[in-house]
């Protein structure tokens, strides 16, 4: 804790030697000294008369939050002219109305013309009011603010520069936020061509150049320039092909076309870029972003400091590979080429990948060994996740078998005709299967997921972006290399891309114009985070795998322990492992119940008692904290129910709609359970572990979906396809089918073409 004026506030560890800007967005969280430049369009209202108070209050709140973390915040603000214009207009209107009333003797006022107001006069009238507003807002967060007005001369005069520098350092030392503005009441017009004369000289002719000059003078870590556009575009914003530039590098300005200036203010985007590059050259990182958008302005500054992909980040370090946006575009183009291949060609790619998994087994296992050793040395993974990270010869062999199943079953997946209808004479309609587009699959500690998902994407003709966990980096690299080697036999290497940049998952989930479906493979927390972050992109998957096994009174003694042991102990980290065991009340204190408990003890399964089960016991195991718990380890909950109806109700209340099982010899009871449990997979006398794409004969799966739209349960090739409609006509127009038209609708179903028997 640090304290100022007896007010404690939290701090974050912030330290870096100034002189070199941050290379990556993720490093911005280490910024200690930050300048926030507020453009005129951010501070002023749409009518340019007065301030956007709500927006300004939000900015002050964010700056205060960062200040209270121990950062040193400075604000370069516009708005004095607009605030003064509002005050002077009011005074002029009031003065004119009094004179008109005196001269005319009438109470009704006529239209009054307002003279053009000189900007310097407006600035003089508005500066005090603007500062008073800032002071009132910062006071709400127990932060003091101080005003500093500067001109270009203050930077050219060495003594004034030292005075300004000393004043700012003293204010920052006392935890005061300096509010800096050009003294527009006296500032002279800028001299032509006097800007950007080198590292040590920049003409202060607007607040963009002022912010850049100030940032370098004060050895600032980060300069945030807020305007009324999202950032820097490769062509004027609003044009059809305009794309936001995520990272801008020195030298790239030659490929950028600048648009017009904002509705207010001295400088346009070109001035901002010049100022940003000058600051970058002086060792200050820069982000240009939108400070006016109602959906993001409330957290735009804090998002930038947290390293989120907001606006345009200026960096001197250009990565060797493509950006994630470029990778997504490459995946889409490659996916379309992939979909245009013959089914036999796509199958050939998958067969080749299956062969490579076994042929290159030693190289794969060596890379996986590096991942395991690094994870164990760092202690970053729990035992269940280490098991998921581990590859073995048997796993690779199973993967190869699964891939060959996918290849064999994918012959007619893309372009398959689902429906044919004769709309009218010579007007035929078909519904055919097509790829979804570009898939983003995010997976944790599961390198075996990469070839599985790649094969399914190839079979379904989809482009694929893969984002694996850094704990499996070596394994993922070699598996992706082998995937691209297989794709190369038909020239579609770019269809599957592995994201190796420092992209945050949340940033990937915002690429709604480039990605069509997100499939998370990992912990329930990962899935929930992705579902929350993905705005505009559908997410297919399940957040939890709370699977139940209900043991009925008519259960077979021989089947019960085998099914329970397999469901819980065969692979406890899997999402389809048993988590809650429901026991019929009549089975308590019977030999069957004792056998279940003895088996779980032998397998070293930790038991948690549900509330009802605990009430039957004198000395019970630890009572469960929640009946909605996915343990992912050798632990499970036992609860008691009165019958199949209560078992179904319990599953609906506490389950996750993943996989649920009944063990019974009573067919009527079993059918009731199968029909009434509303889960993606419902089994009778079979282990929960059968809920798997490979075991279902799908070859592999991209995941298990518990959603109710599109795909549900283990998702194979079919779940990665959508449809389109093909209409073939001969000079048909709708008017021919009107009441007095010459044609009539037939809507006759036509037979489907014969499917490939192989």
UniProtKB/TrEMBL annotation:
CDD domains: AAK_P5CS_ProBA, ALDH_F18-19_ProA-GPR. Its main location: mitochondrion. Residues 323-588 form the Aldehyde dehydrogenase domain. It comes from the Eukaryota. Residues 32-290 form the Aspartate/glutamate/uridylate kinase domain. It is found in: Mitochondrion matrix. GO terms for biological process: L-proline biosynthetic process. GO terms for cellular component: mitochondrial matrix. Its EC number is 1.2.1.41, 2.7.2.11. It catalyses: L-glutamate + ATP = L-glutamyl 5-phosphate + ADP; L-glutamate 5-semialdehyde + phosphate + NADP(+) = L-glutamyl 5-phosphate + NADPH + H(+). It holds the Pfam family AA_kinase. PROSITE patterns: GLUTAMATE_5_KINASE (PS00902), PROA (PS01223). Pathway: Amino-acid biosynthesis; L-proline biosynthesis; L-glutamate 5-semialdehyde from L-glutamate: step 2/2; Amino-acid biosynthesis; L-proline biosynthesis; L-glutamate 5-semialdehyde from L-glutamate: step 1/2. In the C-terminal section; belongs to the gamma-glutamyl phosphate reductase family. Can form homodimers/multimers. HAMAP family: ProA (MF_00412), ProB (MF_00456). This is Delta-1-pyrroline-5-carboxylate synthase. It comes from Tachuris rubrigastra. The gene is Aldh18a1.
